[in-house]
Design goal:
alpha+beta, Phosphorylase Kinase, domain 1, two-stranded antiparallel sheet, 4 helices, WNK_Ser-Thr_kinase, Protein kinase domain-containing protein, protein kinase activity, Prot_kinase_dom
């Protein structure tokens, strides 16, 4: 999601890594081996690191943020205060100088996201910057060799975890089963989506999502729709 009065973080001149494995929706991977979302890889619950405030603990399970431009890596994490699972998102910036020149703008965008509160929006909890050069964040599945790691900066942000999956995946399953959705269900969904968009557009300044698709909208078992991240 982006402020309407500012340039998208994802389209600035800041250079950040791209996750070449990203597809569509939430998909959990455990450890070094790819697993189905309902399976646990060996050591999948291992704690890799903690947030500076110690509230969030990053686990080994990877969450593929499909169709969310700008997110390089995402992992399941635990909120140690509430006991809820959350998503630990990472955005890598490969040029420290360019990042520093736009740091104020980037912080303003993330600050805005943390203040958005609506029933039909995926909650954006907190963010922070990590510039530690002794802890390179490399996807074990890709085996990437990164040069000049000391020049990289990583933005980490915590979001609500939508375990039920995207609206796109729900519609795919519905089509395969041959079930028909009635008009009442469609009206319920569109009302929720429009409510969230009205909230975003009523902010001062207005917030533009910039990537609203069925892959960035999520549905819970009770029919609650939540809009996830736009471009980062």
């Amino acid at each position: 999601m982006n402020s309407a009065t500012s340039t998208n973080v994802g389209s600035t001149t800041v250079s950040h890594a791209t996750d070449t494995t990203a597809k569509h929706g939430y998909d959990v991977k455990g450890g070094n081996n790819s697993k189905d979302s309902d399976s646990e890889g060996e050591g999948a619950e291992e704690i890799l690191e903690e947030s500076p405030c110690k509230r969030w603990s990053k686990r080994r399970e990877q969450v593929k943020q499909r169709n969310v431009p700008g997110i390089d890596y995402a992992y399941l994490a635990m909120d140690n205060e509430t006991g809820n699972e959350v998503v630990w998102n990472e955005v890598l910036f490969s040029e420290r100088k360019n990042f520093r020149s736009q740091e104020e703008h980037i912080n303003a965008v993330f600050d805005k996201l943390t203040h958005l509160v609506h029933t039909n929006l995926v909650k954006f909890h907190k963010y922070w910057t990590d510039s530690k050069s002794d802890k390179p964040r490399i996807d074990e599945l890709l085996v990437i060799i990164v040069e000049n790691w000391e020049e990289w900066i990583n933005i980490i942000f915590i979001t609500e975890y939508m375990s039920s999956g995207s609206l796109a995946r729900f519609l795919q399953r519905t089509r395969k089963s041959g079930a028909a959705l009635n008009l009442k269900a469609w009206k319920k969904w569109t009302t929720q989506i429009l409510s969230a968009l009205n909230y975003l557009h009523s902010c001062n300044p207005p917030v533009v999502h910039a990537n609203l698709t069925c892959n960035t909208m999520f549905i819970q078992h009770n029919g609650l729709i939540k809009i996830g991240c736009g471009e980062i």
